[in-house]
Every structure is written in structure tokens, then in C-alpha cells.
Amino acid sequence: MSSLFRRHTLAAAACTTLVLAPAAPAFAVETAEGTQTISILSFNDFHGALSADYSGTQFADTVEDYRTAFEAEHGADSTLLTSAGDLIGGSASVSNVQQDEPTIRIMNALGLETLAAGNHEFDRGLDDLRDRVLPLADFPVLSANFVDPQTREPVLAASEIVEVEGVRVAVIGASPNELYATTTGAGLEGNLVLDMVEAVNAEAEAIAAAGTADVIVASYHDGAAGSGALEDETAAKALFDRMVNETSPLVDVIFNGHTHQLYQFETDNDGVARPVLQAGASGSHLAAVELTLDADGTVLATTSKLLERSTQDPAEAAAESAVTAEVYALEQEAVAVFEDMQSQVIADLDGSITTDYQKRLDAGGTWKAGGTRSAETTLGNWVANSIKHSVSAAQPEVDVAVVNPGGLRSELFVDRFNSNGVFTEKPEDLVGRLTMGEIMDVAPFGNTLTYFDIPGSSIKQALEQNWRDGERVFTLGWSEELTWTYDDSRPQGDKVTGVWLNGEPLEMDRMYTVAAQSFLADDTWVSLGDPTKAPDGYTAFAEGRENFVDLGVLDTTAVVSYARAQDAAEGAVSPDYAKKGVPVTGAPATVEAGQEIVLTLGDLVIDSDGAPAATSVAVSFVTADGETVELGTVEVPAGEESVTLSGITAPQDAGTGELVMTVSYEDGTTTVVRHALEVTAAAGEEPAEPTHPAQPTHPVHPTHPGQPADPADPAHPGQGHGPVKGDDHPGQGLGPVKGEENADEAHHTVPEKVQTGDDAAWPVAALAALGAGVLLTARRRLTTAR
């Protein structure tokens, strides 16, 4: 009988505390006669973490230090190295720009045996994974729950059985249940994603029935949302609760990934501790589970631990191990290729694209990434345009893109390089040129591109969240589709006065597709129930959100692609000095026809190098049906960044629409500012008179707004009076004016008797027309009064 069916009740060794250094560990299990101990290692979400600091080599040193010490005590080949997914995709720049090939070669050298298929393994599509990645890799990519929709057979291998010093270890891989929402859906080719826990259990049962393994490991590419107590984490996330409590008892070890958390739990599995671990991300930690088995292959005890990545000098580490030396050489080669790419010119640069860093310098401060972060800048808007450009290639329906100012880590100068605030002159041949290195410095974090649907109300909320406790602390960069207005004097949460996409007012209940970097789109704070942990405090991008997709494409790649496209289309990369957000103060909601319109436009000049001065504002009124009425032009005072409209009067015709104010600048740039406006009829204005022959000479005033004339006066049915000088309440009825009691009597005679038949036809028609005229006039005057 397979050892999988014989669970002994020996007490498990206690789970060790976090190991803070990769030195040779103290082992908790003494190997008794007739037993043996093996170790299964796991890491997750490595994301191609290679760098000029040689973090990949230091991770290899961590593995080698542990493996060397363990195998010295328990025998050669007594360790197994696995990964719980996202080895590649969403990678650091060194690996990403080389399509992650250096990472794959390094893992081959390090002896990786299995890789669970995370969502980012599919970033370039299933074809790329099968036809390029797998032939390069010396390890299988596993997913028990990614299956053909017809046959329900796994598209990739569901599990791999590896012999570890005579012990048969089966590793089952599982991809995220929401795989389609976390990678490029089209690249999955319509295959089906089954529930990961159910798929793991089914595969474990099949392995047990075949009797082909002594130990079973579940490598789930998903996990707890946080790293609190086990009971808190299982309560917070239903899927994690099911992993912990519903994974088959046939499974001896559970490794997690995807959520980038660091935790070390254990549960009882028929008297033997079953570890549940996740090892952070980017090679920051290594998880190790040591299992002691009897001669029949039955697990008697387990011990788990987490080891921090080595901090040893990479050259020294390479001198200690042939494996580490090979990894070091591969990483050096990858870094050299990357650094060569950094110096490559990718476009001409016709104007510096910057933050408002100069404000800090002028105030006596030092350069800081993102500048003050509270102002709109050419760099923020340009990077947002680049995100929109790249995401649109995958999702043409994307409406707008956004970027946080803290993600802008450098400046793009025409004639200088920037290295964390140290400015150096560019060589003559690079003046007016944009290099790969400069772009990589602007976006160095390895954020990936995402898109998702949120309601218009969430977009407005994101704009409101630029202010905290009434103070403007951030300003998001937006792609060119979005414009907005605000009034700083209004209360927190109500400062934004208008938002437009492509010139159309934002609809609060409509869903819009927004593109953003993965940092700004992160919603971990939701599962934690802590809005203070939202990225830069912006909760809006997770509220009401649907259809989230992480493309796995680096933001750096997007910026490079956009720069090349702009260079090809326009002859050079150039800044756009148009403002997206403009403060509008003192603006009326309504104005009488022909009356002066008074409001102030402020902050008209974008806070970036080279911004031109504003020169004039052309004002027009666009009616609800699209008719444009030109109202005039106002000059912006020289040297000023604000202007108050003067000499601009409202159109003569009443109606609703928008005031459209086009700001012109010295270099030909224009900024369009909009303001919703209703033009009402002028006080005392005579409405157009009906032409019906039965129309009264004077428009009729009802005694009360909306009420017909008093029918109790048979001598003057429907009789009314025109406006009287000094009447401040148009639309309200007037009492009889002396000398006018019978002024219209000749036109409105009262019949002496009731007429019937044909004789009654004309008087009845006349009376009907008269009544219609009365009601029409009353309605018009009521409209004027409102």
C-alpha cells in the first residue's frame, strides 16, 4: 500500500521562526535510524529579478548556501528546488528587455525542477510559452486547472514526479482562478480555468491511485491577502481558506504565490504538520520544508523555515560555489547587454519633458523624483499618453490612461542627463536625442500595464483625491482625452466642478475603461480593509471596478514604444504644454441673455521646463444642439497665468450648453476649458406673439404663475396685460390698471346666448385659440421667472 494512505500520528516538529540570514541553519529533526530527511524548496513571483546589483546571484547564493549545508548532513541530491509561479513576466528591466531569456538560463543553472504556471507566464500568450519558453527551460511548467474546454485535459503538464534521494515527490501546479483577468486573455486561446483546489485534489487522487509518489506538494499560484494570523487570513479570503482547509489530506506541503506575501503557517494533517508558506517576491526569500520519512516513504514529521536572500558580495559568493559562479557570469552578461541598450538612441527630442522639479530648486530645496507631485506636468501627461498608446494595442476600447506623479523618477532633458538630481551636460552627439537609459530612469520600478472598468464617479473621485484634508498634495497625470476644472475654495470632496472625456461630459453612472500602471491599480488595501494602504492614497481605482486585466507589459516598454511612434509620426518626441486641469472660479451656473459673463481662469501655464506664456482666451457658447456662438476674445495680461473674463456677454437666445474657452499660447499650443452654462431669457423680454387670428393684442398674465386668468370675470375672459414699467416679476399676473378695464373689448366680445350647430363653430374655435394663447403665454412667462 502506498505511503500516502498511511498517516502516522507522530508529532510534527515545531515550525521554526523566521531565519534572518542565509547562514547554515540549525536543523530541528534528527534523522533516526531507518528514516531519511529531504528538503523541498520554493520561491515565487521572481519576476525576472536580475539587476546591476546582482540580486539574482545573491538569490542563487541563498539557495546554494542552504543546499550545500543540508546535503552535507542528509546526503547528495536530498533537496528539490521548485517555484510557485511568475518566474517571468512583469520582470525587472534587465530581464524584461531580453524577453526573460537570462532568467530562464539562470534557473537552468540553479537547478530549478518545477515551475507552477502563474498568470505572468502567459503574458506573451500560450504560443510563446509553449514554443519559446518551454524549449529554453530545463524544467516543466505545471498547471492542473488550465484545461482544454472540450476534453478537460490539462493544456500543460498537471504535475511532475521527481526522485529526491530515493523519495518520489509529486509537485502539482495550479494557476490562478482569475487567470483571464490577470493576463492577456486573448493569449489563453479560449482554454478553460477550473477551480484550482478541486483540480489539485483530483490530480492528488490520481497520483495516489497510481501509487507513483511518496510525497505530494501543491504549488498554488495564489495565496493569502496578507501575512497576519492564520485564522485572520482564512477569514479574509475564501479561496485561501479553501486551500488551507479543503486541499486533500493526500497533499503533504502547500506552497503559495501571486499575492507577494511572506508567511509561514502550518495545519494538522492527521497528526503531521502540513506547512503552508509563501516566500515574498523577487527572490527576497526562500521557503524550505524539511520532511522526515520512514523506510516505507511515510511522512513522519515536517519542519518549515523562511530564509532571507543573501547579502554577500556576489563575486565572493561566486568563489564559493560553481553553481553560483555560473549564475553570476550569466547575470553579468545580461547586465552588460542591458547597459548597452541603455545608451541606445531611440528618438529625437524636441523640447524637455519634465516634472515641476524647478519649483523645489527655486525654493531652496533639492531635486526630488516627481517634483512637488502636486502640479500638472508635461512628463506626467506624456507618460500617461504612452500608457494609453500601448494598452490600446491590446484593448482598443480603453478610454483614458492615468499615472501617479511618484512614479516619475527622472526628467527628460534636451541637453542634460539627470542622475538623482545630479545634472550633467550631454555629449554633443546626444543633445536633442532621447536614450533608452533616460526612459528606463523615468520608469524603473518594473510596473506592468493594466486596464479595468470603473464608473465615471470613480474617475471624479480620483481627481478629488488629489486633495487631502483640503490640501493639494498630488496631481495625477492623464492622457490627452481627459480635461477637468476645479475650484480650490470648495470643500474637500467637492472641489472638482467638471470632467470631460473627448469633450463630452463625464457620466457618473457609465463604466469607462481606464489604463494604469500596476502600482496605481493595486487593490490589496481592499482585502486588508485599510484604505490608508491604497497606492498613494487613491482608493478610487479599486471602487466599483470590474474586468481587471494585467497585461504584464512593463511601463518602460510602453514609454519606449510611444517615443518611437511619436518620433516616426512627428519627427521627434516633444512635450505637450496644454493643460488638462484648470481652476475656474466665480463662474455662474446661469446668466441672462445679453448679460456680461464674469469668471476667472487660473494656473494656465503648465509647471514644466519650456512652458510658453498664455496670450489670449477665445470664448464661445456651444448650445445643446451643437450650434456655436462666438462671444469674443480676452487678452491674458503679460506675465500672468490667470485671467478674468471681461467684455464677454451671453448670447441673446436662451438655452443650455457649454461655455468653451480656448486658451492660446505663444508657441501655438491651445488649452480648451469648458463650463456648463444656462442662458435664461432676459428680464421683461417679450415672447414672440402667436399669429393665430384669435390671438389677443397683449400677452395674458395669469393671476398666479401657472394659473389661467380668473374665469369668474365673464366680462373679460382670458384678458391680460403686457409688462408694465417697474414690473420686477415677469410672469406674475397684474390687477386691472385704471382706464384699461375694457381696452380689448372690441376683440373679445362675449356672446349673448349659447349657440349650437354651425353657428357655434367659429366662436368655439376662437375661444380654443384664445385659451391656447393664454396657456402659451403663461408658460413662457413662467420659464422667464425661473
Automatic annotation (TrEMBL):
Molecular function (Gene Ontology), one example: 5'-nucleotidase activity
**Entry's Gene3D superfamilies?**
3.60.21.10, 5'-Nucleotidase, C-terminal domain (3.90.780.10)
Q: Which UniProt keywords apply?
A: Hydrolase, Signal
The residues forming the signal peptide are 1-28
List GO BP terms, alphabetically.
nucleotide catabolic process
Residue intervals passing through the bilayer: none
- By what name is this protein known? 5'-nucleotidase
Q: Where is this region: Disordered?
A: 683-748
Q: Which organism is it from?
A: Micrococcus flavus
Give residue ranges for domain Calcineurin-like phosphoesterase.
Answer: 39-261
List the EC numbers from the record. 3.1.3.5
List the coiled-coil residues. Answer: none
Please list the residue ranges that the record marks as compositionally biased, kind Basic and acidic residues: 738-748
Q: Which domain of life is it from?
A: Bacteria
